[in-house]
Specification:
The protein is an alpha+beta fold and 214 residues long. Helices cover 34% and strands 19% of the residues. The protein is built from 5 helices and 6 strands. The protein has a 3-stranded antiparallel sheet. Helix 1 crosses helix 2. The longest helix has 22 residues. The radius of gyration is 21 Å and the shape is elongated. The C terminus is likely disordered.
Length: 214
């Protein structure tokens, strides 16, 4: 069952002893939830992109391949690429690997890179193919703005979202920035648990505390 904003708001307000929303308005609680979601999305995007392919939350940008054209627009809201692949119109080949700038114009190169705000694929397409390019990616999350909104990855990280929001509320109340670090370990634990449950590899990435700044 999808986790809604209403569920998280009830938990957060109870912990903050403000169920009547006297000290913390709904808009403020929405902002806290949105910050928590961005922390999770950025952390997972940077440290374990494979996680997104195990959920239904990865985004797919399809483009028509054009003969002789290597550069294609980046999708709106792009945060990190998970997978890029192309087809000759019959079947999709193996995913393309990232390549360096030194290979961007090599005729025998095979892969993709980002150049001047666009996705460049190699080798250069030799035919027009409808929806011949598939680009799976992690997108910046859409902000929640109503009690009925579904929270991105809420079923996985709802506990973290609520505790992170409570910590933000207490920081505002007590002016104690160190309070937020008490929930950082919870996110790391929940990320590790989800990776273990889905048998995904644990990528080596930046430390979590580097991504708690919004």
């Amino acid at each position: 069952m999808a986790t809604t904003v209403s569920t998280l708001v009830d938990l957060i307000a109870f912990e903050l002893k403000d169920t009547a929303h006297t000290n913390y308005s709904l808009l403020e609680l929405y902002a806290y939830i949105n910050k928590a979601v961005r922390v999770v999305v950025r952390h997972l995007a940077l440290t374990n992109a494979e996680f997104w392919l195990s959920t239904s939350e990865s985004q797919l940008d399809q483009r028509n391949l054009q003969n002789g054209v290597s550069d294609y627009p980046m999708p709106t809201g792009w945060l990190r690429t998970i997978l890029v692949r192309t087809t000759d119109g019959t079947s999709f080949g193996e995913p393309l690997d990232p390549i360096g700038l030194d290979q961007s114009n090599m005729s025998n190169a095979r892969g993709y890179l980002f150049l001047a705000g666009q996705l460049r694929i190699r080798p250069e397409p030799s035919a027009d193919v409808v929806n011949g390019l598939e680009h799976y990616y992690v997108a910046l999350p859409t902000a929640v703005a109503a009690l009925t909104d579904v929270v991105l990855l809420g079923d996985y990280f709802g506990d973290f979202y609520s505790q992170f929001a409570v910590a933000l509320g207490r920081i505002r109340q007590e002016e104690n920035p160190a309070a937020i670090m008490g929930v950082v370990g919870l996110l790391k634990k929940q990320v590790d648990q989800q990776i273990a449950m889905t048998n995904l590899p644990q990528d080596i990435g930046p430390e979590l505390e580097l991504h708690t700044t919004i």
